[in-house]
Amino acid sequence: MQNDHIVTRFDHDLTEIETMLVRMADKVAGHIRQASRALIEGDDKLAKKISRADREVNALEEKIDEKAIRLIALRQPMAVDLRAAITTLKISSHLERMGDYAKTLSYRVRVVEDFTAFRPILRSLAETSDRVAVMLGLVMEAYVNRDLAKAAEAAAMDEEINDRTDSLFRELLTYMMENPRNIEPCTHLLFISKNMERSGDQVTNIAEQVRYLVTGELSEN
Questions:
Q1: Global confidence as pTM
Q2: In the 3-class helix/strand/coil scheme, how is the chain assigned residue by residue?
């Protein structure tokens, strides 16, 4: 009876943490989409709003980590239960970094006054940010359902993000070679593109954590 109570309490606490983790991921995905919209529209107010909202993501990470560490210390879980608790710590860290990338993007909106000469680039960046947000939603669904196939599907999408980044790099390099005045705005756009690529990498890292959670292994190799 005592053991049943402990198991039930652990499951309740873990579910609470996982719910917070999903809420954190939803916020991050929203920030990624909003940041690219602020870039396209040159919306300084929206950019500032995203920058301020990142504090909510950081606060959630702190709360998740605090609860997860407390859960491990008090319940002393073993095997898959321990993996579940550890995974929440890892995923919250990856999500926090993605939130930082969205905040950095919002800063770039205010650095360069006019990106209008690079409309095709901006549209491509917006499409990339949407893909990253979709990846994030997919991998979090995989996490909640312990779905290895869906986690692999999310990780596989990172190849598209990498291809987009390479393509944008070549395009921006062309702009810079054509006109030295393009160097500054193009450099900022390169940073934005690179941060989106890093966000895709974080999704891949979360997919690896799902694999670890389900199988006890971090990779297929």
A1: 0.91
A2: CHHHHHHHHHHHHHHHHHHHHHHHHHHHHHHHHHHHHHHHHCCHHHHHHHHHHHHHHHHHHHHHHHHHHHHHHHHCCCHHHHHHHHHHHHHHHHHHHHHHHHHHHHHHHHHCCCCHHHHHHHHHHHHHHHHHHHHHHHHHHHHHHCCHHHHHHHHHCHHHHHHHHHHHHHHHHHHHHHCHHHHHHHHHHHHHHHHHHHHHHHHHHHHHHHHHHHHCCCCCC
